[in-house]
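Troubleshooting entry. Yesterday's outputs looked truncated, so today I'm pasting the complete records for two proteins to confirm everything comes through intact. If either block looks cut off, that's the bug. Protein one:
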Amino acid sequence: MQRIALLLVFVFTAAGFMAAPVPAQDLPNLETFISSLPGQSDVPSPRPPFSPRANYLAAAASLSGEKLFQFLHAATVPSMPGTGIDYLKAKKYMFSIADNTGCDGGPGVTAFYSQVCVRGASESGADYKEQGDANEDGIRDTGGMNAEHTWPQGFFNKAAPMKSDLHHIFPTFITVNGRRGSEPFGVVSQAVYGTSSGSKLGAEGFEPCDAVKGDVARAILYFVVRYYSHNIRDGMDYKDFWVSRVPMFLEWDRRDPPDAAEKRRNELIERRQNNRNPFVDDTTLAARVGLKIFQSH
C-alpha cells in the first residue's frame, strides 16, 4: 500500500504569510513524516478492531448495493470519546498534523474553499490569518481559520461522535465558512459571493471550488454511510440537502479523484480515530453502492 505524506512539520512560531502549497509529488513517506514529529504519542498507530485497509477492501470486493452500504457502515465505526474536549483535540490535530500539508518548503495549512496556504505549525486555527485579501472575496480574515463541518453541526445538534469526526471536517477561513453556513452544496449559476479559487454562493447553495469538489463529495458520502442511523436531519430539508443532490456528489467524486494529500489525510485521521473514509481508499465503491441506495438512506 502506497502511503503518502507531507513535508516534515517542525514546531516553531507560525509565520503569518501566504505561500504556495507543496506539490503532491514532493510529499515524503508517511512513516518518515510521523517519526519526525516532536510528540509521536499524538499520532498513534491504528488500533483494533478496525481491519487493515487491504483486508476490509478485499472483504467488500464482491459486494454491491445495499449489502455494500451496510458493510461500509459497519466498517467505519470510529473510536473516539466524542466529548467537547475531544472536539478541541480534533481541531488541534487537524491544523497541526492532518491538514498541515506545507507551503513553500515549510509547514502550513491550505484553506479548503479558498486554496490559499498560510504558513505555520500551530494547533490553533486563529494563528492561520489571511494576509490581505488573499482569496479575493473582498474581506480580510484577520481571525484566521476555523473548522468547517461539511454536514452542518446544527443538523445533528452538535452531537458526538459526528462533531469531532475529521473525515467530514476541513480548515477554512472564517468568512467563507460563515457564508457557506448550512447551505446545501450545489452548482451555482449566479454568485452573490465568491473567492478567486472558484468557490461561490448563490440561489442553488454553496459550490466548492473544483480543486475540492471530490473531497466534499467523499466527505458527504462517508457521513451518510457512517451516520445515517443517527439523528442527522434535525431542522433540515433532507431531500433538498442530500437526496436530490446525490447525482451531483457521485459526479464530483468521479471527476475529482483523491490526490496525494487526501490519501495522506485519510491515513493520519485513521491514526487518531481508528477508521477510514472508504471512498478515498477505493474509487469504485460509490458507483457500486449506487444512486438509488444512497438516496434511500
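Protein two, checking that the full record survives here as well:
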Amino acid sequence: MATDSATPSMIVTVIIPMRGTEQDGTMLHSRRVIIPKTGHHRDVTESRSLIEPRTLKGFRDHLPAQALAREKILDIARRVYRSYGFAPIDTPALEYLEILTGKGSEETDKQLYRFKDHGGRDVGLRFDLTVPFARFCAQHIGVLGTPFKRYHMAPVWRGENTQRGRYREFMQCDFDTIGTTSPVADLETVLVAHDLLAAIGIGGFTIRVNDRRVLSGILQECGVADRSTDVLRSLDKLGKATPEAVAAELEAHGVSVDVRAKLLGMAQLAGDPATVLAALDGLVGSSETGRAGVAALRSLLDGVRQAGVPEGRVVIDPSIARGLDYYTGIVLESFLDDLPALGSICSGGRYDNLAGLYTKQSLPGVGASLGIDRLLAGLEELGRLDLKETSAEVFLVHFDEAHLADYIRIAARLRADGMAVEFYPEAKRVGNQLKMAVKKGFRAALVIGSDEFAAGTAQLKDLASQTASTIEWHGDIHVLSDAVHSQLEVIKAGG
C-alpha cells in the first residue's frame, strides 16, 4: 500500500487481488481512494450491482421435492431395466455435429444447440440418446458383441418452443437392444415399457403401437410413397392437431382428396385388435412391406397376451408414426388415461438402419425412452406425485444439548441398521423442529429428552397420524434401533 500525506486527507492506493489472468490465476487491480485523516482505519468496500438470479427460458431448477420424485422414478426404471438384462452406459453430452445432423428430422436439426468449440470444431449438444447410442455401438460393438442391451439416463437438449411438461433441457431414460431383428426384441420393448409404467404406479395407462411398414405399404398403395416423410410427419400430428388441420397439411404436400380421406380414415381406425388388423390387411393390399408390418403387429399382440398384460393395455393405433425419420418397424407411444392430452410419456420403436451411417456392419436396433419430465408434470397435475423434501424417513429431535454425544451414537446406529436419519443440528424448541419435520415429509420423529434418557425410554411419533408409541430401551442402543425399525415398518405399511 502506497501513501501520499500532502493533504489533510490520505490518498491510498488500494491493491485489490482479482481472479482471472492466464498466467497465475490472479490479477492485481488498483484504485485510489481518498480517506479523511481521522487517525482511524476504515474498510474500503467497492460497491457493485447484484446479478439477477434467473434461469434461461426452457430451463429450470429442481427443488428437493421435485428432484426426489425424479430420482424415485429413475430408481424404479433402473430396477425394471436390469430385470430384463439391460446394462448401463454413458456417452458425452457433446458430439461432432456430423454425428447429430440429419438423423432425426429437419425440425430436430433446427432445434440443435450447435457451436464451435475452442478447437474450432463444429459440435452440438445431443438432442436424444438414440443417435449417440448408434455412434457408440458402431465404435465399440467389436468389444460388446451382439445382441447388446443397454439403458442410459441422461439430459438432452432441444431448442424448441416450451409447453406443458416440455423443456429445452430434459432427462431421457432410454433402453435399447441392438444387433438383432428378432420380433422377440420388439415384444420385449413393449413389455419393458408396460412393466415400467406399472411399477411407477401411475394409475391407468395405454400403450399404443403401430408399424411403420404398415404406413409405408398404405402409402405405396395410395401412390404417395415418394412423399412418405412429409405425409408421415403430418399424420403424426393427429391428436395434437385436428383432422382438418392435418388434411390441409396433406393437401399442401400434393395429396389428393381421395387419398387424404383414405389416410385419415386409416389413422382413425379403432376397436378390438382383430377388427383393426383386418382393416389394415385390406388397406395395405398387395404391398409386401405393408403385409409384413401387419403380421408383425399380429405377432406382437399375441406375445403381449402370452406375457399376461391386462386386456386393453396395449392397442393398435394406426395414427402412430413417430416424427423421427429413423424408425423402420414397430413404433409405440404411451398415454395416461386420465390425461391423454399431455402426450406420450414413453415412446420408441425399431430403427434398423441408423447405425449404418457410422459402420458397414448391420446393427439393427429397437428401444424406447421414458419421458420422465413430462410424466412428472402429468402426475403432479393429477395429484399423484408424492412430493417430499427429504430423503430420510426418521427425524431425530435435538432435545437436550447435554446428550449430544448420545444423539450422535443413536443416529449412527440407526443408519448402520439401514434407516435414513436426519439429526437436527441445534437444540431448538421441539415444536418448531417437529413442524419442520412434518413439512419436509418425514414418516417418523424420534424424541428422547432428559426425562426419557433417565427413564430409559423414547417416543417414536407417526407424523402423519400424529400418534406416538413408547419404546423401552434402557440404554441398549441395539434394542432401540430394532424397535424403531419394526415400528417404522408398521408406520410405512399404514401409510
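Both blocks look complete. Sanity check on protein two: Confidence is low (pLDDT under 50) at residues 1-7, 9-35.
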